[in-house]
Structure formats: structure tokens, C-alpha cells
Description:
The protein has a single domain (43-218), classed as Lipocalin, CATH 2.40.128. Helix content is 14%, strand content 48%. It contains three helices and twelve strands; from the N terminus they run αβββββββααβββββ. The protein has helices at 2-22, 109-113, 115-119, and strands spanning 43-44, 51-52, 58-65, 71-76, 79-86, 94-100, 104-105, 127-137, 144-153, 156-174, 177-191, 203-218. Strand 10 and strand 11 (177-191) form a beta hairpin. The chain is globular. The model has no long low-confidence stretch (mean pLDDT 85).
Amino acid sequence: MKNIFALTFIIFMIFGLFMMKCTHDDVEMPIVGFPPIERGDDIVSFNDGYFFDKTHSSVRWQSAYLGTAALLTGRFNEFEIDLEFDEANPANIVVTGKVTLSTVNTGEPGRDQGCLLGTFGVEVSDEAVFISKSVVFDESDPTGYIVTGDLTFHGVTDEVIMTLTYLGTDFLILREVPTNVAGFEAQFEINALTVFGIESGNIADRVVINMNGQFKQPQN
């Protein structure tokens, strides 16, 4: 009997010590967030002598062919990109772009001059135009901006959201002329079938548009 009491006492002692070690006030953990984003103060503006370098720029698109996983990709041979960029003040940023739809190029001339011209709705308008309305910082990307604008395509105007990335500037000697070169990337998506009224069995509803823009500023 004494052994049973002794064993019971030892068990209670061990349980009590365990509870003493495991019972404590909750410790408030520090909140770990993203470090503050630091941006520069670069300005890329036509007013400062910058011009659009179409030769080293592009407007590309992709969509699932026949709605499957295989991608139909292409670009436009004729396009324009205008940009007024203020790195530190997104409210001052203005982006416009225009493509000539009949210059679609997928690397297959028969396809480009055949079904794709009908797919892109050239009979309605041979231009697709994007005009920005507002720009804010992308708080998750120190080089990114969120651009809200209107896209007019196939006789329909709809609001789209574009991500704009500033690739920075570099100082180069081009043909013995000192030149500042600034680069940008942008991307947005559209619902070509359900929103813009494209009638096609060749492409999926979702079409992704990518733009790569380069701007130059010769130094006198």
C-alpha cells in the first residue's frame, strides 16, 4: 500500500512540474512585414528629348489555340507606344498604345492573311487602342506600377488593368552618339470572345497581351 501511495505521489509531482513548465503567458510575436519600397526619381518624357525606339520594342499576344493548352502566339508589325513616365509620382504617368491589326504576324503568312484577319475583327476597325486613365504603385514590386485604362478593340471599349514594369535606364554610345536608353515591360489580359465580341473557334476567350517598350534620349 505504501508503494502505491509513493508511486501516486511521484506521478502527481511529475505532472505538476510538467504543467508548471507548459503554463505561461502568451508571448506577443513581432510583426514581420515587407521592407519599405525605395524608388528613384527618373523621368522619361518626350518633353526631355526621349523618343520611341520601335526597332527594339514589340507588342505580342498569346491565346490557347482551339481552347486547348497549345498556345497560338503572334505579334503586330505596326504599333506605337507613347509614354510619359515619372518614377516617383505615378499620378503623372501616362501610357497609350496602338496596333494595326492587319499587320498580325504569327510566322505563317497564309494563316495571318486568312482566318486571323477575320478573327481580329479588321472589318470593324483595323486599330486597337489603349489609353491609360490612372496609375498607382504596385506595392509588391519596387519597379512595378498598376495602370488602369480603356482598350478600344473590335468596336468595343472596355476597362483593363495593366501591370507596368520599369526596367531602368542605361547610358550607351550608339553610333558614336551618347544616349540614355530606358526600358519598360507591360502586360494585360482581355476576354476577346465574351467582352469584345470576337467570333472565332481558333482562339480562347482569354488573350494575353505583352508589350516591350524602349525609349532613347540622345545627349548633345
